[in-house]
Write a structure and sequence with these properties.
The complex is a heterodimer of chains A (552) and B (372). Chain A is an all-alpha fold and 552 residues long. Chain A has 25 helices and 4 strands. In chain A, the strands form 2 sheets. Chain A has a two-stranded parallel sheet with strand order 1-2. In chain A, strands 3-4 form a two-stranded antiparallel sheet. In chain A, strand 3 and strand 4 form a beta hairpin. The longest helix of chain A is centred in the last third of the chain and has 28 residues. Chain A is globular, with a radius of gyration of 28 Å. The two termini of chain A are 35 Å apart. By secondary structure, chain B is mainly alpha-helical. Chain B is 69% helix and 3% strand. Chain B has a two-stranded antiparallel ribbon with strand order 1-4. In chain B, strands 2-3 form a two-stranded antiparallel sheet. In chain B, helix 4 crosses helix 11. The longest helix of chain B has 32 residues. Chain B starts with a helix and ends in a 14-residue tail after the last helix. Classes of the chains: A mainly alpha (552), B mainly alpha (372).
């Protein structure tokens, strides 16, 4: 029956010149594309009357066809063939110096990007400047220009970041993602990048999976909250706090000192959690850290009546608020000519480069300084004796132990170092927001930070910075903007029925889950891989073949 | 934690599924054995257990009715934990993978049940007979659904990473867990799905003092016990069960003996998923409320149960499930020096941590070098 229908179909197609032999000679992706085109042409008229008709329907259709056709595998050889006709064959371009190749790629992608921005109506001069800045950083062979040259890219990136508050208001609008994140969002992103760097020490360097990193974040936040708020009104202790009335009850200690204290407390916390558990194997350790990551926030939630003693440790679900904000005090501010503000919330009257500096900007630059400190430490730690011991443990625990690496001590140090930065980040964040709530410290945050370093590339600082920056942006603003774009353009309606509005941020954890799954399956070393880790991950495929067959 | 030595270590020290009837295999010496556990640890552990028993005894004397009531409640909830814990332990036994997604497979089983209740027309009111007739197809459908789902997850997400460093599939499992949670979220929304609370008959069978044992609780037992019997028969008596045990002990040797390892692993995931499906039906009908994040918390509690009993050990998972269920209920309901339901997670996870620190092989499991 089916066979008869099949042969009849081929006879019909043959009469318009598409015989079976010809069809089978086509490349596979072209055949898939043809099927997708026909299927779409049949299905579209069925769907169209039911949904609001607009262009997005055809965008979706085009995306589907492109995905099925996979033109990149089909086009790449033809692309080089075409270029070869103009004397730019693959072999010849490969012999070019790196800057020339990078320049061509930059020119092609940059102009494509500009066209895209223009097509979405977000174009202004800043887009061209952005492309030029990226070109200046990427195209010239900086790393070959001696020692000074190697610092140019990081210095350039740093300059771009530091100047951000000055130019963010004049930036172009990105396609789909909308406008650039404001400075407030920028501070949150920097805090999360900092936490990702801290977790990278534990997971990326030492290879210990920590699923409870949020516990350190919480501990840091509460350490600052306790000693810089009205939480303990029985005591009135003031030490170096700025902008606080001297008669105010509770502990009010300088936030700078508290950041150090928070780092110390979380490090000790890391050691306390680590000592009994670090001798467990990797996956048990992950579960134990997850347990701690659930216990600490629960203590925070129920801590308004700690152990039924009536002692209010954490103010329970209402959280601790307000928390003092940092500042340098009048004297230091005067000495530095007002460069270091006396008090952050009361800042600032100065107008720099035509930009009225506000407290968020000051917090942003402080976060940049803290992040620089974190990056510097994790970079120096990686190359230190301790860092090499971590990597040795990650690669082979038994061999490392045999070579004299003290396992327990080295792992505990990894925990303490990772916790250290988590504590600073948490403490700074609490002071920035002026509040800390137990609801901020859920398991999803731990996995969220883990996703950042997996996406970026475990163990690679640049990778972690990029991955964390991107995901923190998505979490803070990107998902909401994307959702708004989808809803405004009727795509949600097209996908899920007329008039549907998708609340994209609601599905954030599913999106992270998908990112984790895709990265682990297709590029386990992350976007910007650590070279050493990449070798490790792929060495498995050649050395450790198992006897039975695994179908990939 | 990776590469050759890991594999070597794995091969010599695997215990596979240990059950009472199975002979203990000889264990080759391993690099990490020989470290004597200080007896101080055992003493602290014993003191903790002693305090726990003392606390239970005082509570029993003070409020016997409540105590027995909670015992029955814990028994029923513990059965559900046991079924989910078995899924963790089966998968861990064969792949040494903590399948984080398992709790969410269970959750989707519960979600499916809330839909099936509507499909079978027992959502508003129905005779006891109709409920009794619908419950069996519901169990079968949920088991088939969750089993298939679990096999699909294994094929797509875990199989390609079979030879990757062992943390890779663990992280992937985390991702799958999040994806499944969001499937539940898209499917049923963010609010808990409630169903009629008296689908299972709520009448009492017998009472001790004023503590009552209800039909609802008996039905949980009536479903769980045959399921467990079926599982034991599958693992102990069938050829496929033998293949599972062999694969759990040593995959390479099993392959040499002609066992299709991939198929056996898929089969294990099928059984684990089916148990989660049965648990999902029971949970949904008993608790009558399922939300998209039910699976995460309950999954972790069930994992704790598997660890308490000794991971990889099938009777251990059941024992652990019952213990965790009772501890949870006692903590929620007792009055004398009881932390209360605000602290349930803290207590369960503390138990998890204490067990892993003091007795990583669990109550019934055997001491494995990697565990300690």
């Amino acid at each position: 029956m089916a066979r008869a229908a099949d042969s009849r179909l081929w006879r019909a197609l043959g009469s318009v010149g598409l015989t079976r032999e010809r069809w089978e000679r086509w490349p596979a992706n072209l055949r898939n594309g043809a099927i997708a085109l026909v299927a779409g042409a049949v299905l579209l008229p069925l769907i169209v009357p039911r949904v609001r008709f607009d262009g997005s329907l055809y965008i979706g259709y085009a995306v589907l066809v492109v995905l099925v056709v996979q033109p990149w595998t089909y086009l790449a050889p033809r692309w080089w063939q075409l270029l070869g006709r103009f004397g730019l064959s693959h072999e010849r371009t490969r012999a070019w110096p790196a800057w020339a190749r990078h320049g061509v790629i930059w020119a092609v992608l940059g102009s494509a990007w500009l066209v895209l921005i223009a097509a979405f109506g977000g174009f202004n001069a800043s887009a061209i400047v952005t492309v030029l800045v990226i070109g200046a950083l990427v195209v010239p062979p900086w790393s070959d220009v001696a020692v000074v040259g190697r610092a140019i890219v990081p210095a350039g990136v740093l300059a771009v970041v530091v100047m951000y508050p000055f130019y963010v208001d004049h930036m172009f609008t990105m396609p789909i993602f909308g406008s650039f994140p404001d400075v407030f969002t920028g501070v949150v992103m920097l805090v999360f990048i900092m936490m990702a760097c801290g977790l990278n020490i534990v997971v990326g360097y030492a290879g210990l999976l920590d699923l409870g990193y949020v516990a350190f974040y919480a501990l840091g936040a509460y350490s600052v909250a306790w000693f810089a708020s009205l939480q303990f009104p029985q005591q009135t202790v003031h030490f170096g706090a700025v902008g606080i009335d001297k008669s105010l009850a509770g502990f009010h200690i300088s936030v700078w000192l508290l950041l150090i204290l928070a780092a110390a407390i979380t490090s000790v916390g890391g050691i306390i959690i680590g000592v009994p558990t670090l001798r467990l194997r990797g996956d048990y350790l992950a579960i134990v850290t997850l347990g701690f990551g659930e216990i600490l926030p629960q203590i925070a939630r129920n801590g308004d009546n700690f152990l039924n003693t009536g002692f209010n440790l954490t103010n329970g679900p209402n959280g601790i608020t307000p928390i003092d904000q940092p500042g340098f005090g009048e004297r230091i501010s005067d000495v530095t000519g007002g460069f270091l503000p006396a008090s952050y919330p009361a800042c600032c009257t100065a107008s720099v480069l035509g930009h009225q500096v506000n407290p968020n900007d000051i917090f942003f630059w402080t976060a940049v300084v803290l992040l620089l400190f974190t990056v510097f430490c994790s970079w120096r730690l990686r190359d230190s004796r301790l860092g090499r011991a971590w990597i040795a443990i990650r690669e082979d625990e038994i061999a490392a132990s045999a070579m004299g690496v003290p396992l327990m001590r080295t792992k505990t140090w990894a925990y303490a170092s990772g916790a250290f930065f988590g504590g600073i980040a948490g403490g700074f964040f609490a002071s920035f927001k002026g509040a800390t709530f137990p609801g901020d410290f859920i398991f999803n945050i731990s996995v969220f930070i883990l996703t950042m370093i997996i996406l970026g590339g475990m163990g690679n600082i640049w990778g972690v910075l990029v991955g964390a920056g991107f995901l923190a942006y998505l979490n803070q603003a990107g998902l909401a903007n994307t959702g708004a774009w989808l809803n405004d353009h009727g795509i949600s309606g097209f996908l899920f029925g007329k008039g549907t509005q998708i609340d994209v941020p609601l599905y954030a954890s599913g999106i992270y889950g998908t990112i984790i799954l895709i990265v682990m399956l297709f590029r386990p070393e992350g976007l910007i891989p650590d070279r050493r880790r990449q070798v490790e991950l792929h060495a498995e495929e050649t050395h450790d073949e198992s006897l039975y067959e695994v179908t990939h | 934690m990776k590469g050759g030595p890991q594999q070597g270590c794995t091969r010599t020290s695997r215990t596979g599924y240990s059950t009472h009837t199975m002979a203990t295999e000889a264990r080759a010496p391993s690099l990490v054995t020989g470290r004597k556990r200080p007896s101080a640890l055992s003493i602290i552990g014993l003191i903790l257990v002693g305090l726990l028993l003392f606390w239970l005894a005082i509570n029993f004397v003070k409020t016997p009715t409540q105590f027995i009531d909670l015992f029955f409640l814990g028994l029923s909830l513990g059965m559900v934990y046991a079924l989910v814990a078995l899924g963790y332990t089966l998968v861990y036994g064969i792949l040494e993978l903590i399948n984080f997604a398992h709790g969410d497979v269970f959750m989707l089983g519960g979600m499916l049940t809330t839909s099936m209740v509507v499909w079978f027309g027992i959502d508003q009111s129905a005779s006891t007979g109709k409920v009794a007739v619908s419950i069996v197809p519901m169990l079968v459908i949920a088991a088939a659904f969750c089993g298939t789902l679990n096999v699909t997850i294994e094929t797509i997400a875990y199989r390609p990473l079979r030879n990757a460093p062992r943390l890779a599939p663990l992280i992937t499992a985390l991702g799958v867990s999040f994806i499944l949670q969001n499937v539940g979220l898209v499917w049923k929304g963010s609010a808990p799905v409630n169903i009629r609370s008296n689908i299972l008959p709520t009448g009492d069978i017998f009472t001790i003092g004023s503590a009552a044992y209800s039909w609802k609780q008996l039905i949980i037992v009536l479903v769980t016990i045959p399921t467990l019997a079926l599982l034991v028969w599958l693992v102990q008596k069938t050829k496929q069960g033998k293949a599972m045990r062999a694969t759990a002990q040593d995959k390479d040797a099993a392959a040499i003996m002609g066992i299709d390892v991939n198929r056996t692993i898929s089969f294990t995931f099928l059984i684990a998923g089916a148990l989660a499906g049965v648990a999902g039906v029971l949970y949904a009908l008993y608790v009558t409320s399922v939300s998209f994040d039910t699976g995460f918390r309950l999954g972790l509690f069930a994992f704790t149960a598997a660890v308490v009993g000794g991971i990889g050990n099938l009777p251990g998972a059941v024992l652990g499930g019952l213990l965790i269920g009772m501890i949870e209920q006692f903590n929620n309901g007792l009055t004398w020096h009881t932390p209360g339901s605000d602290w349930t997670s803290t207590i369960i996870f503390s138990i998890l941590i204490l067990i892993l620190v003091f007795r990583p092989e669990g109550l019934l499991g055997e001491r494995t070098p990697e565990g300690g």
